[in-house]
Amino acid sequence: MARKSATARREELAASDPVMADLIERLGPLDLAKRLRRRKEERPADAFGALLRSIVGQQLSTKAARAIHLRMLELFDGPPTPEATLALTEEDLRGIGFSRRKVEYAHSLAAHVLEGSLELDRLEELDDEEAIAEISAVRGLGRWTAEVFLLLHLGRPDVIVGGDLGIRRAIMLEDHLEAMPTPKEVEGRAEIWRPNRSLACLYLWESLHAVPD
């Protein structure tokens, strides 16, 4: 089956929901494939490095996460690997800004990969829910991390990141709600966007850039 073009996906999404049609008209063309390529230029292109980077960024500003990530890369001779990550001590990682919990998460990720309980090369073969279950079985990698990984690393076309605060806030603003929807309410709201929920997420995230803090 031929893959849909970016234009076809935008048109399909716009036809599914007048709110999305308005966003697409206001923000112009967004392309998941282009966003994916740009992200891999800015962040680790390999699956292990991407998941490790997500641990670094948890509950931190973008600026702080980037600084710690760069310091972390200096500890490695080349791209991060599970073996090299396990070889780093708690003192090593705490010294560059990791919390004690994030040290545990980083070592847990590396151990799961080395033990074979998380087969990174196999994730692309799994359907979305199977891949989410595999990733979120690792301590410190919850459903949000797994969904973002599927959307922005694997480029899956129909992922909704229901627990993301940005998505929830954008829906609140675009739908003129009095409060942010719950993750379950986001999932329900997103049903009409199938099979283009990933593109809908991109538009919702992008919409926040035009909104004053």
- Tell me the helix content: 55-70%
Count of DSSP E strands? 0
**What Rg do the Cα atoms give?**
18 Å
Assigned CATH architecture of the largest domain: Orthogonal Bundle
Q: What's the overall average pLDDT, rounded?
A: 91
Strand content: under 5%
Provide a descriptive summary of the structure in words:
This protein has 213 residues and is an all-alpha fold. It folds into two domains: 6-30 and 158-210, Endonuclease Iii, domain 2, CATH 1.10.1670; 43-152, Endonuclease III, domain 1 (Orthogonal Bundle). 62% of the residues lie in helices and 0% in strands. It has 13 helices and no strands. The protein has helices at 6-16, 18-27, 32-42, 47-57, 62-75, 82-87, 90-95, 100-115, 128-136, 143-152, 165-174, 183-189, 197-207. The model has no long low-confidence stretch (mean pLDDT 91).
What's the short story on this structure?
By secondary structure, the chain is an all-alpha fold. The protein has 13 helices and no strands.
